[in-house]
Amino acid sequence: MTDRFSLLASSLERAGFEIANTPLLELAQHRYAHPRHRHFDDWQHRIDSLPEVAPSFIDLDRTAPVIGRAADCTGEQHASLVQSLQALCPWRKGPFSVFGIDIDAEWRSDWKWARIAAHLGSLQNCNVLDVGCGNGYYALRMQGLGARLVLGLEPVWVHVFQFSALQRYLLQPQRIFVLPLRLEELPQALTGFDLAFSMGVLYHSRQPREHLGRVFNVLRAGGRIVLETLIIEDRAAETLVPVGRYANMKNVWVIPSYTLLQAWLVEAGFDQVRLLDQSPTTTQEQRPTDWMTGHSLAHALDPNDPGQTIEGYPAPLRACIVAEKPA
């Protein structure tokens, strides 16, 4: 644990964030010391007992980031890896290839990545904040494009441990850190990021305009936000405020129209707002797999009308947007 935080401290200092080191590290250490999750010890044991295997090949700039090959493991090590990785189910984001083990996650996150990657440009020497980063799929892809530092925030412990399992076998100098924190918990002094990702987070925020304002504040002048979120396509309404659940999700608070979302971004201070992609979510992109066997999108749509959720709302439509903080 100490090594984890000493590496984070030195990486933050090299990236120019030394002023925020102490409060951030203290908060992260406190969260690990008081996790308040009944499976925490079991998941930590799974990470601690992962077999010692050295990957002969790593390539993060792939549809399924590759960490090691099957031939790097003995049969016993391979079986142990499969057991430990499956114990961390459900895997929501992916895919990954880990020592020949194909982790086919619920989401084809590579499809989302393809919608935005061409607009990112080089990430060499970039410091990135990845809000709601899940198990680090996008963070790994960003490292594959040369990002200097990716700080991921993820409040769901199982996703944090999934990243820890992957990170265990990355022999490159550590440039990605995933902390069990929310955006609103970041120290105010932690500012100056070149790029911020907010992928599938905004509609889970009770105060979406505050969320965009907080992202604006952590960016340097000239920095960018990459935002992926649910929107509605309804000329008669600016927002959808679900009563109860939306597409079986109980924590969707408000879904704006794209026009209103643009206005929110401008209100937060952003300019150069660009729509990169607008696509309905399909059951080919989000579906159950052997690595996520529970209910998925197909169970959330009206079986007689896939254009509607089971609650009678419009089916999920997602937008990918990039905007800039004025220089």
What is the structure about, briefly put?
With 327 residues, the protein is α/β, with parallel strands linked by helices. The protein has one domain (2-324): 3-Layer(aba) Sandwich (Rossmann fold), CATH 3.40.50. 30% of the residues lie in helices and 22% in strands.
Q: Descriptors for this entry?
A:
327 residues, alpha/beta, Rossmann fold, seven-stranded mixed sheet, 15 strands
N-to-C series of helices and strands: HHHEEHEEHEHEHEEHEEEHEEEE
CATH fold-level topology: Rossmann fold
Task: Identify low-pLDDT runs.
Answer: none
Q: Characterize the biggest β-sheet.
A: 7 strands, mixed
Number of strands: 15
| Share in β-strands | 15-25%
Residue-averaged pLDDT = 94
Rg of Cα set: 20 Å
Q: Which CATH class is shown?
A: Alpha Beta
Anisotropy-based shape: globular
Order of strands in the sheet with most strands: 7-6-5-8-9-15-12
What share of residues is helical?
25-40%
Q: How would you characterize the overall build of this protein?
A:
With 327 residues, the chain is an alpha/beta fold. It has a single domain, classed as Vaccinia Virus protein VP39 (Rossmann fold). The protein is 30% helix and 22% strand. The protein contains nine helices and 15 strands. It has helices at 2-14, 21-33, 40-48, 75-86, 109-117, 137-144, 157-167, 208-218, 258-268, and strands at 58-59, 66-67, 96-98, 101-103, 127-131, 149-153, 176-179, 193-199, 219-231, 239-240, 255-256, 271-280, 301-302, 305-309, 317-324. The strands form four sheets. The chain has a seven-stranded mixed sheet with strand order 7-6-5-8-9-15-12, sandwiched between helices. Strands 1-2-3-4 form a four-stranded mixed sheet, with no helix packed on it. Strands 10-11 form a two-stranded antiparallel ribbon. Helix 1 (2-14) runs antiparallel to helix 2, helix 3 (40-48) packs parallel to helix 7 and helix 8 (208-218) packs across helix 9. The longest helix has 13 residues, at 2-14. The radius of gyration is 20 Å and the shape is globular. The model has no long low-confidence stretch (mean pLDDT 94).
